[in-house]
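Review form for a predicted model. The reviewer records the input and the model, then writes brief findings.
Reviewer: anonymous (R2)
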Amino acid sequence: MSQLDWSKFENLSGAADVNFEKLCRSLIRRHYGQYGSFKELANQAGVEFHLKLDQDCTLGDSTRWYGWQCKWYDLPRARAIGATRKAKIVDGLDKSKRYLPNLTDWVLWTKYILTESDQKWFYGLQANYPFKLHLQTCDDIENLLVGPALALREAYFGELVIDEQVLNQNYQIIASTHIKKFQPEVHQTVKVEEIIGKCLGRHSSWESIDSLGKAINNNLKIVKDALNIIDPYIQTTLPNFLADGEKLGSFLNSLFLELAAGNFEKVKDLLSEDIDCDWSNYRKTVSRLRAKRSHTAMTAANLLADFYSFSREVKRVRKALNARVIAVVGKAGDGKTDLALDICRPKESFNAGVLFLGKDLKAGGNLDDLVKVFKIYGKSVSTFENLLEAIDAAGQRLGIRIPIVIDGLSESEDPRNWRDEVAKANALLENYPNVLLILTLRSEFYQDCIPENTPTSELNGFADNPSQVIHNYFEYYKIDALDADIPIELLSHPLTLRLYCEAANAERRVAVGVEALPRSQVAIFEQYFKNAIDRIVALSSSNQRLYHEDIEDALLNIAEVLWKENRRTLNFKRARKIANDIVDWGSSLIRSLESEGILLRYGTQNGKQKIGFSYDLMAGFKIAEYLLKGDFNNWIRKNINKIEHGKPRSNTLAYDVFNSLVGLYPKYYTRKHFWQLLEGDFKERALLQTTQEQASLINRETIQEFQNYLLSSEKFASQAFKKLKTTRSAYAHPFDANFLDKSLRNMSNTYRDLTWSEWIRKNSRELKIDLEVLEKRWSEIKIGSNEKGRAIWVQWLLTTTHRDLRDQATKVLSLYAKKDPRAFFEMAINSLNITDPYVPERTFAAAYGAILSADFIDAEKINSSVCDFAQKIIENCFIPNARHSTTHTILREYFLGIINYALKVNQYFVSQEYLDHCRKPYEHLPNLFESLPDVSEERIIEVKEAALRMDFNNYTIGRLTTNRANYDDSHPDYIQTRRTILKRMIQLGYEPEKFQEIDRDIGSSSYYDRDVKIDRYGKKYSWIAFYEMYGWKADRELLDDWRGNERCSDVSIDPTFPKIDNSWNPELTDIFTNSPNDIGEWILHGPIPNYFNLLEIQQFTQNDSWILLDGFLQEDSKTDYREIFTFMRGFFVANEHVSTISEFVGNKDYLGNNALPQIPENHYKYAGEMVLGNTFFNLHQDVSSRVRFDEWDESSFLIEFPVQSYSWESYHSSLNQAGGIDFPNPELCQKLDLKYHNRDPDLYDIHGVASIFRTFKTDVGNLKGHLSYLRKDLFQKYLTETGQTFIWILWGERRQNYRGGVEVYEYFKTKQYLHKQVYIWKDDQIVKLD
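Model under review:
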């Protein structure tokens, strides 16, 4: 064996001393690691690594414990190491003696043998240490580079030395064949890449470790202040608490540093330690700190929370870095190759990875064959394990984990080969921690290629953020699509998006408009090929002229060979011969097709070249064209098996050929479709694919057959809905949203829920993302008529029992309704004949919400259509014999709310006779419950037991009966009411036997995922019947009196969707710093807060002043448990009552417990209704803003609340979490013409913002509360017009935060903890009263 070439070692990337240590470590681990416990940690005391043997081996017996210190002294041979180096050696020995007292052997490993005098000095130290001293040199390295470490000889000194240059060169060779496929400028990072980044241990992917470590260390500094507290439990447990914190902080710091350095072997050693323990006893420590009023208590609580975060974070790191193989699956064109190229692409902070193409694996081949294309300075790697050795060593030196990516396993000659090869690779990778194997393949081949339990991530195209990606691509390709109806659904597919852009504007010289954009998948390919061929023809020279037919013939002939020989590629010389048979300059033709990105050339291990289409989809398209140019109908009868993907004897490109045949067949056989030649599953598949093709070619028979399948096959329907989503807004397309609308209307409620509603539930994640995209789109753009298809689609999502998704769909529809009210109002009226009341209920909710929350611009459009809309509601739902009358209490309130609004726009839009029909008790309308079916008692019991759970059965239905005690199932009216509800559920379509298994699955899922609220179908039908019965009983005054005058408390959503995202951090005087720290002294003698500057401010807008109407403010000390709160109550009052109120406040000890009138609360009034005054139809019980100052004294004078509280309860919906907003009172809003706009808690008038509501937000959460303001000019106007003035009563308490734990009852006996102040508006300014 040749001698080691140390000059080659010295020229390796990275520092020579670091590489020397890594080499030594690897040698010991490879030879002896299996015989004991091997440790290598950052900042290891005295040695870089150590090995405690537990088995006898050639290194020593099982009692030995070795430690190594590796020193690459950059000195010539026979040169003394000097005093400084000697001192460092002694320091290492001393540290080993102190921190590794049981070490038996200590080894100094240097490049060259020490001089004789240095050796004498070193061995002379032996008497000072309990372990035996040894020396090792490069000669020992040469002796160890054998057996299990033989490959390291090549990886560090020989032909397997890989550096950045080798990695980059190999990447560029592979990437150059994809130059037309991959555009880094528009590459979109997807979630799968983020997961891979973590598994690669990339520093930036694990910044959370550094953040957590710093948080622990910062908290430790503060908690250490508690060591002097005299408390037996604290004194016993706090030192351990702090020690554990220091251990965890140090661990995270080491982990982060080793990740940053790329020391993955050290990282794995760290992660193998069991550092978790039981920290529950520290909870009592925190409690005791609180009881002692220590300022450290809150920080200690945070520190303990960090301990549990540590456990979760370490588990995540361990899982990511233990991954040796990751499979990435996706459909054709989902971006797998883009992902592979980007992962391996050298970037500013990352070296290149290693990229192979799955198509290079021949049938019967293995990984050893595949990796031969990888060259190290011109020489091929011989085996996969040699490559792993070389890459792992390079990763060690470079301080990174290097990805080896095999792209397109499914494109190999026999994809089934991969299953065993992947299993073997996974086993090999156990020994190579600096390597991660990433495999990409198409979803259809996953089971054939990938062993079970392989970590797998799924690509989903650009579905997570299609709008942004499309924008980026259009910008890059200079496509001006401002007025275009962009098929977002189709373009969420990466390949289709790229080809779409290429077809529209491949040259990117000048911008193109709508006229250039293709409309279907076949159209995209046709346009792409046409543009590419046009360019080739135009650029061909006069002496080597190429014509369109030459190029078409060449492509078809290549496709013929691929098809007949069942291949993806063919020999390059053969391709050139095919072209030469057409024109004499065939080589030029092939080169032109390559330059256009239609064909790709590949190298092989034997130096030959092969060529194929750039994408399987492209190959499938051309093969389909070739097949259709012959006698296809006769051929297909004999050869159907060749295009039946997944069946024996099918072609390797069968899947893509099949899909292209669907789109191309009607072009060759007029008014005929491919599905008409097929049977069974393949007929269904062809029918499904037809939805994606050119609209003008889809015939009536196809549409009818598709609908027949949709209405009769649950399996077909579940696949069809995803296809129909992509065409929902396609222009003049037979499978647009109108087709879906018609089909769903033709379904029974039962079948629709079993197919459509279930498809929604199972695809809720993707549909949620889709709704988020539409919400953003409809918030930003001017809505055109083409958006109606998407709105119809969203409208049908309202059938779902997924409550959050249904609420989100309602909200999105409300946005659409504001943008195009005329179209949406028409949709709402048309929804009345949908048999599932879930749909019209929420459609009209969206309409009412849009009407109440429109801004001034949208309101103009609404006002121009709302009267006609309201009239149609009356005609369809309220006049005698109305076709769509209902007792559904929620839906009917939306009707009446819309009519109320129309009356404000035009009080004479309908006759009084029409309006009279809209009043209770609706005796002129048919009684829904008189037409219920005859149902056996057994069936009623069966439905009850399947659908009704305890709470709904007892409490909810119980609300419909008066004078009934809870759980009184014998009450006659309750029995009859429940029976009627159950019969109505049956009439609606609830069949327990069909929904039982699904409902059981929903119930089980809800138990394990409490955050996702999905109702059972039994619950859905129960709610519908309940709301209808509620309205029926309310009409006849058969409910409790208070219920009859109030909106149903079971209303599920506020359709005006208020938001609170406006927070404020006012500048306040520090009330704590110069105040008593003792909690008792604070309560008794603390200061009175000065909030005078909050009563009138100028901070919110540039030129306006704002007057406080009402508010609440609580300040907490940042360092301890002192706390102060203040109510800032405002009232409009007559001038003559000011002195009475002031005197009352001065004489009243305590102003809590309703001593002052309480702000009216509205629990079931929608936010958009808060500004409304009296309406024609009363939809809820209005609370008055004018009350007696002393509610118990009939002679007491009246005061007026300036605000009313919107007190909606958050449990109704995850999208209605904004309860607790104080709006100006309705009378004030009506007099000043204030409007609710776009979900904003701030109100507007024609000049802009009119009132402001703000909650408080600070970095440390020490300020809580809210304040309500009115613009000063409006405030003054209202005072003038009502002849009133305004008084502020500020009162509150100094107290201890609830976490303080000190007994403070005695401090409250003297009332000194209270503070109060009174201010009035006088002479256009705020004046304090004594």
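Findings: The longest helix spans residues 232-261.
Further findings: The two ends are 103 Å apart (CA to CA).
Recommendation: see findings above.
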